[in-house]
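Case 436 in the screening queue. Each case pairs one protein sequence with one candidate compound; here the compound is flavin-adenine dinucleotide. For every case the pipeline is the same: read the inputs, emit a complex structure as tokens, and attach any notable structural observations.

Predict complex for case 436.
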Amino acid sequence: MANPSSSRAWRNWSGRVECRPGKFAEPKSLSELQTVVRDAAAAGKKVRVVGSGHSFTELVATDDVLITLDGMQGLVEAKPEAGEATVWAGTKLHRLNPMLDEQGLAMENLGDINVQSIAGAVSTGTHGTGMKFGNIATQAIGLTLVTASGEVLELSETKDRDLFKAAQVSLGTLGVIAKVRLRLVPSYKLDYWRKKSTFTETLAKAEEWRDAHRQFEFYCFPHAEQVQLKFLDQTDAPVNVNARKKWFADVFMENFMFGAMSMVCRSFPSMCIPIARFCAGTLGFSHEINVGHKSLSTVRMVKFNEMEFAMPAERGLECVKELKEWIDREKVTVHFPIEFRYVKGDDVCISPHYGRDSAAISVHQFKGMDYKKYFDGCEAIFRNYNARPHWGKLHSLKAKDLRALYPKWDEFQRARQQLDPKGVFLTPYLKSLFVE
Ligand SMILES: Cc1cc2nc3c(=O)[nH]c(=O)nc-3n(C[C@H](O)[C@H](O)[C@H](O)COP(=O)(O)OP(=O)(O)OC[C@H]3O[C@@H](n4cnc5c(N)ncnc54)[C@H](O)[C@@H]3O)c2cc1C
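Case 436 output:
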């Protein structure tokens, strides 16, 4: 999105998306935020809001006004006895989790990283793993929304419920979320095991493991038989972390070593297959007992692009088998593992997990390497499983395809047209998703 009148560029985490907004706005209060949105709308400008810029698609890109809520972070109010807290929407999860911990509270689940803003994570239906847990949008029980007219709406399960169900996952197309009221649980610790297995054994036992543990996920390497398993269970045992071992496994092996291997693959794509096999061979065991949010989030320093689709849970294993067989058979030049997680179904209009317990399968390609052919092949397989794309990750679906996947599509569209009739929050990319 070139805009010669602006010299300051904005880029997403993976560096794939770049834009030059005419104006960057950093409101520090609700009233400043209202003024920014109202003035931009009156001037006929498009408005987008960025959280941490960790989405892989053009969701945030605009030539006009880009709002960051970095100046609107922190706890507004905690109610430990009620198991809830209200936070400013710009709060980054790595700041939020310790703040909640101080109140004896915690989010029941998190995704793979903790650098997203709470509003960004809610808005795309970001999720972790565990069949008992919905995505992060389902942890939001109230939203304060600034609409295109600058009006402030308080939405919740009990107030304007239809608008709330549309706003929970809405990609910033209904307005700017200023505050999020969260449903929380008492702080907890997790007993976290990392083990290895084979692909054949994993396919046979995944559903048993899923049901036996609080949380389970696996990573299977292309071109190899080894699989990394992750099991997490709540515990009252004391924290037990070997900091050196954890640094070696999580930072040195998964980031520095894997990053170096990835650079070799980028220079010599034919090395992807032996390197995937080598990496799979280094998988090991580890165990820690840690505060929940510390066990759930990992460090991701190796940059990549990603695609993810969510399908009915009962079809997930069949799909990952087909996907891996295709990658191995076609000798696809990829060395990143395939990630497989479970997510509980929900009632949020355009949540990828709407109405069904889901399996979420993610594929990655190293930054700077060609992902198009690989992702196109994966998407063709995913689409045979009635799967829905992750809103923050790469896919090629347009409004017509998406409408067919979401039973509550029309309800979402009605809310969007009611709150933003002039399309202030609709850039060309968002139009491709929502306008036929
Ligand atoms: C390394 C890495 C790991 C990841 N791991 C996971 C994972 O484990 N699980 C998962 O599901 N996803 C994962 N993702 C995807 C990521 O969680 C989502 O794309 C998420 O939306 C990013 O949050 P953000 O704060 O960066 O939002 P952004 O990418 O900045 O924005 C995302 C969307 O939210 C909107 N938005 C942001 N703030 C507001 C607001 N205040 N009001 C209204 N709309 C707003 C934006 O306009 C945009 O449409 C990962 C991404 C990366 C790069």
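Case 436 observations:
- DSSP finds 13 helices and 20 strands in the chain.
- The pocket of flavin-adenine dinucleotide is lined by residues 13, 48-55, 59-60, 69, 89, 111-113, 116-117, 119-121, 123-124, 126-127, 171-172, 176-177, 300, 390, 392 (CB under 6 Å).
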